[in-house]
Amino acid sequence: MGFPTQRLRRLRGNAILRDLVRETHLEVGDLVYPMFVVHGRNVARPIGSMPGVCQLSVDRAVAEAREVRGLGIPGIVLFGIPARKDPVGSEAYDPSGVIPEAVRAIREAVPDLLVLTDVCLCEYTDHGHCGVLRGEEVDNDRTLDLLARAAVCHAKAGAHVVAPSDMMDGRVRAIRQALDREGFETTPILSYAAKYASGFYGPFREAAGSTPQFGDRRGYQMDPANGDEALREIALDLEEGADIIMVKPALAYLDVIRRARERFPGVPIAAYNVSGEYAMLKAAEERGWLDGPRVTIEILTAIRRAGADFILTYSAKDAARILKDRGARSS
After folding, report:
1. What CA–CA distance (Å, rounded) separates 233 from 224?
2. Quick check: 323 pLDDT over 80?
3. Distance between CA atoms of 122 and 325, rounded to whole angstroms?
4. Beta-carbon neighbour count of residue 268 at 10 Å?
5. Catalytic annotation on 156?
6. Does any domain span residue 104?
């Protein structure tokens, strides 16, 4: 049957009815908030390209973590900026480094907040690449041991989940074996399984001080033109022991999220709504070109609709406030 018997507008004319038949729901509990941690005390250094986001010393990160949890956001993911960089990213796996210090402090102060840690070398190396070098190429296999050491270091500090973002082949297996050897068999791995060599990472590189000093990361991050390859990457990481997989970026790769959801129906899928996506929205909002709150929720809902179980996003605090306000107005 078609028109006039079928009139789909019947279900759109009333706000309460629209809510009842809505297919995709976005909740505060679907969000994880990224944070950048630096050495020092009472540091809150704004990141110019990411309005509202700062580099934070551990004491200020603890305060931010309390705010995040108070908004109902269930988790954070931590990125560290070291005091000193070197060719092998030593602070990435230093037990007294900024990330272990932050994990311990946040776990003690906000015990019901899930703490994830990014596992990579790019913030910690003086050349800005995600692994140790052989000439001007990243040496995949030599990097694996250092990534595994970093993951164990974070787990010992109390990280609930470790999240390798480097895109080295075999790093999930190396990390899983190292965690198991050290007695962390129950620590999950969230793998950045389909991480693309994207132009949307520019603001993050300012935030983390991780711009490569030469070349780029296209030799190990994925080609944005490839979709089938993402499914191969995900399958390999699952075989190696990944517990959750991630697609990054999210907004320009909704098709990849959807394909992953269909191909791996029982696997938890995260998506990273990355810095450039956030920066574009904030810039347009500041100029009055977009309704910031409305578009924030629309973007995050689209990522959930594509199939993501949860979203890492710099908009998490904004979204939590918007959703809370909407709930208060509808009650």
Report:
1. 14
2. yes
3. 38
4. 15
5. no
6. yes
Angstrom distance (rounded) from CA 156 to CA 96: 11
Q: Which DSSP state fits 166?
A: S
Around Cβ 42, how many Cβ atoms within 10 Å? 8
| Structure token pair of residue 273 | 């709504």
Residue 96: domain span? 24-214+228-245
Amino acid at 61: A
Tell me which of 40-44, 128-132, 271-275 is least confident.
128-132
Tell me whether residue 151 is in a domain.
Answer: yes
248: annotated active-site residue: yes
User: Which of 85, 156, 248, 317 is labelled catalytic?
Assistant: 248
Single out the catalytic residue among 195, 282, 317, 324: 195
195, pLDDT greater than 90 = yes
3-state SS, residue 115: strand
**Nearest by Cα to 155 from 122, 188, 131:** 188
Spell out the residues 6+ positions from residue 157 whose beta carbon is closer than 8 angstroms to its own: 95, 99, 100, 101, 103, 104
What CATH number did the domain enclosing 33 receive? 3.20.20.70
* Other CB atoms within 10 Å distance of the CB of residue 228: 9
Contact 160, 115 (CB under 8 A): yes
